[in-house]
Amino acid sequence: MHPRNPHLYFFSPTGGTQRVAGLFAENLNAADACTDITVHAEAKTFSADDCLLVFFPVYGGRVPGPCLARMRALRGTDTPAVLVAVFGNRAVDDALLEMRNTLTPQGASHPVIKPRSHA
Ligand SMILES: Cc1cc2nc3c(=O)[nH]c(=O)nc-3n(C[C@H](O)[C@H](O)[C@H](O)COP(=O)(O)O)c2cc1C
């Protein structure tokens, strides 16, 4: 399989999603590739050799608006993206779909993962 450069982005107002992103980073040996976009996100463009992992919480069945706003700063070029929705065991509702619909026009393609919150 073609190796890709992982880039982990997390939005985590109360820390639960950050914990999940940290576990992924640890297991991928990619602690240096973690970016916290809870408060701010720098504009960045990724290539097809990159792999974006996006961690976000579900609030009221949605992706928090500020999280979607930060994600709009990112651009890809057929960049694979893994979407990880962290939720409190009620429901993900359409949050993964919402994130996919935000990122797809920006150049990403993605599978999805739905960890439950252990907070
Ligand atoms: C305002 C608010 C709304 C939430 N809405 C949902 C929800 O719709 N479904 C669900 O399963 N969990 C919901 N949760 C639980 C969060 O998704 C869960 O605690 C998540 O880990 C929070 O992420 P964070 O700690 O990174 O902010 C909600 C939590 C809060 C504070």
Report the helical percentage: 10-25%
Average of per-residue pLDDT values:
92
What is the structural class?
Answer: alpha/beta
β-strand amount: 25-35%
Low-confidence regions: none
Order of helices and strands: EHEEEHEEHEE
For the biggest sheet, the summary is:
6 strands, parallel
End-to-end separation in angstroms reads 35 Å
Q: Number of helical runs?
A: 3
What topology emerges from the helices and strands here?
Layout lengths: L4 E6 L5 H12 L6 E3 L7 E2 L4 E8 L7 H7 L2 E2 L3 E8 L8 H9 L4 E2 L2 E2 L6
Parallel strand pairs: 1-2, 1-4, 3-5, 4-6, 6-7, 6-8
The protein binds flavin mononucleotide.
Flavin mononucleotide (FMN) binds next to helix 1.
Provide a descriptive summary of the structure in words:
Helices cover 24% and strands 28% of the residues. By secondary structure, it is of the alpha/beta class. The strands form 2 sheets. Strands 1, 2, 4, 6, 7 and 8 form a 6-stranded parallel β-sheet that branches. Strand 6, helix 3 and strand 7 form a beta-alpha-beta unit. It is globular, with a radius of gyration of 13 Å. Bound molecules: flavin mononucleotide. Flavin mononucleotide is lined by residues 12-18, 57-61, 86-91, 117, 119.
